Amino acid sequence: MTRPARRPVAALAAAAASALLLAACGSSAAEDADGGAGAGAAAGGGDASSEAGETPETLVFASIPSENASSITEDYGHVMDVIEQETGIPVEQQEATDYAAVIEALRAGQVHVAALGPFSYVTAKDGDAGVELLGAVVDSADEDPGYRSYGIVPAGSDITDLAGFEGQRVCFVDPTSTSGYLYPSAGLMENDIDPENDVEPVLAGGHDASALSVADGTCDAGFAYDTMVTQELVESGQLQEGDLEVVWESEVIPGSPTVMSDRLPQELRDQLSTLFAEDMNVPWMVENGYCESEDDCVMPESHTYGYVPVEDSLYDGIREVCDITRSPSCVE
């Protein structure tokens, strides 16, 4: 199935934010392939920024890649296929370099469905970006979605705990990353380390980049989510087992949600909610021909089941960590 070509969502967000006199929070370095003039129009003639209540000609699905640009398609390809086929509306994939760009694009009505991190969801929800939860991915239907942030160092490092991060060059992901910035900041502060002034912070831009920068010595230490360290980079051959040592684990973080814009018409929002609650899982996809087998059915973040519904209250822990850290990103 051929989808409309990708365009950088950061450029859409910047253009829309400028028009609405919004602050360009966390703008991306990605260039606007459309030259800016047509940034609001979806490929194939669809209008990505629909008025409230109107059904868009194209549904724009946005995310940031967990490893590289191709991983968005690999992670969310089946999800986008189900949305497209079951709603009858073409889905356009958009990639961004950070969550702030996705949030601004949601706020401006340039994105309709988005995969966010827990922290970026709270930022979007509490910042009136107009989002509603669709669900989060798990490994089994009765599992609560969640993961951990890992504090990592190169193999053989003298650093054995978070206290050893003080004075070091430390890789974070980006200021709106839950496991790559917010929870690590809270962990450092619990050790009386200011994450801005007591370390030399480096914003790597991605969990893979953070982990790889630690492994190659660019950073003395850093943070990334658990399976990026223990599974994904090892399986892709970019790291060998033992290249990194885990010296800290966060408490369980609520799972990364996928959201939709509340500008969509109610009938379409109800349909999307039902799809994610009942159908966006491996057994249903195999039964209905979206995957040939369970092994063929790739779900986001390497999860083996698919989506389950989640409530906003699941993310109250994120809000509590924001209260503790008083991170500027929480305020923004």
The number of helical runs is 11
Structural class: alpha/beta
Strand tally is: 13
Helix content: 25-40%
Radius of gyration: 19 Å
Average pLDDT over all residues: 83
Main sheet makeup: 6 strands, mixed
Order of helices and strands: HEHEHEHEEEEHEHEHEEEHHEHH
Name the CATH homologous superfamily of the largest domain: Periplasmic binding protein-like II
CATH class of the largest domain: Alpha Beta
Q: Number of folding domains?
A: 2
Q: What is the second-level CATH architecture of the largest domain?
A: 3-Layer(aba) Sandwich
The largest beta-sheet arranges its strands as 2-1-3-12-4-13
Give the low-pLDDT segments. 1-51
Q: What is the fold named in CATH at topology level of the largest domain?
A: D-Maltodextrin-Binding Protein, domain 2
**Fraction of residues in β-strands:** 15-25%
Q: What would you say this structure looks like, in words?
A:
The protein is α/β, with parallel strands linked by helices and 332 residues long. The chain has helices at 9-19, 69-87, 99-107, 118-126, 178-190, 207-215, 226-235, 266-279, 282-287, 316-325, 328-331, and strands at residues 59-63, 91-95, 113-115, 131-138, 146-147, 149-154, 169-172, 200-203, 221-225, 244-249, 253-254, 257-261, 306-308. The chain folds into 2 domains: 9-143 and 255-331, D-Maltodextrin-Binding Protein, domain 2 (3-Layer(aba) Sandwich); 149-251, Periplasmic binding protein-like II (D-Maltodextrin-Binding Protein, domain 2, 3-Layer(aba) Sandwich), CATH 3.40.190.10. It has 11 helices and 13 strands. The strands form 3 sheets. A 6-stranded mixed sheet has the order 2-1-3-12-4-13, with helices on both faces. A 5-stranded mixed sheet has the order 8-7-9-6-10. Strands 5-11 form a two-stranded antiparallel sheet. α5 (178-190) links the parallel β7 and β8. The relative contact order is 0.17.
